[in-house]
Amino acid sequence: MESKRCFQNRFIDYQTGSAPGRGQGEFGVPLVTDTIESILRQLPAPGTGAEGGLYSGPAGVAYMLFHVSECPLFAAQRQSYLSRARSLLEPCLRLADSEPDRQARAAFLLGGAGVYAVAALVYRALALPDFEEALSKFRELWRVCAQPTFLDCGSDELFVGRSGYLCAAMVLKHKLGMEILTPAQIKSICHAIIESGKQYSKKKRKPFPLMYSYYGTEYLGAAHGLSSILQMLLSYQEYLQPADRELAWQSVDFLVNQEQNCNWPPELGEMIERENELVHWCHGAPGIAYLFAKAYLLSKKPSYLDTCIRCGELTWQKGLLKKGPGICHGVAGSAYVFLLLYRLTGNSKYIYRAQKFAEFLFSEEFKAGSCKLETIYSLYEGLSGTVCFLVDLLQPDQAEFPLFTVFAQ
């Protein structure tokens, strides 16, 4: 029976000893530049449509242009891409500045924090003094996130919560090569995440020592759930008290045990119906893999790498998603798992698989059978995330899922 969620993967898998496809540089650069031109033609009129944050708004397109500008293969377009990114950010910054709700402004993927972070990256790349102001506005939001009463709907998840703010700070530190937050500020936010998780888990009598909810749902996946919160706690584990660090690692191991058929249900306690399972970055193995990658990089325990590899096997089988080309619940998001596994293992099989998923993105079968999107230009659901993937496929040794690094220290 044909799946409602994914196309059948008809590609022959990698054969040991064969080389991945050649000519990716020659094939890839024109494809990327053509796709960028298509994206820019579909954007809202200048000064309009600034909503959506990094997830679905023009600010996410600005990040894509910054990402492409960093790749040496696009040196000729660097200045024009950065200039266009700056013009896209200006109305987004005005919108963020005018947001009266400081809690909403502190959101990473859906609010001002992410816009300020990307503006800092773009302005620094352009050597503009505005860089300091954008960075200052980002830094000021730490106080909001550290408050125990931050966000009743779900104070700790990635899109709008504390872990998203820490994720943005880590990206900035990695890209800018400078400290963004003080150790005291980081400890304060991490402490708030730990206490929030402990209190919720105790109150609801959960099997994890740390547990969280978002709008009343106990998500496990990367978008709104436990896995990305734990990933951030591991990323900042040196700022945790030893007992709290142990709680984080215990929760990672509890999450390992929630695996069902190489996948994880969207919510704690759900049973997966195999014919209807979610295999997305936002919900399921393709996003949870990043937590176990971080756990492996820190602990060097082979069991965490084995879990990542199982995530990759499932993604190869069910990752040609019908929802679109994007990174949240689309084919590019699936393909990023292979680039992650390549960086973890050095195995050429994963480059081959990523190339096959890239090939499928431009096939007639995908164009005819995938969902039509309102924001085809967006970073997380549309083609801007696809462009980031195609650029990373050209430089797999540096590849990272956009704004979600596991390799940065």
Automatic annotation (TrEMBL):
Superkingdom of source: Eukaryota
GO CC field: plasma membrane
GO biological process, alphabetically ordered: carbohydrate metabolic process; peptide modification
Keyword Secreted: no
Keyword Iron assigned: no
Amino acids binding Zn(2+): C282, C328, H329
Pfam families: LANC_like (PF05147)
Any one GO molecular function term: metal ion binding
Keywords: Membrane, Metal-binding, Transmembrane, Transmembrane helix, Zinc
Segments traversing the membrane: 106-126
InterPro entries reported in the protein's UniProt record: 6hp_glycosidase-like_sf, LANC-like, LanC-like_prot_euk
Protein family per UniProt: Belongs to the LanC-like protein family.
This protein's name: LanC-like protein 3
Organism (species): Pleurodeles waltl
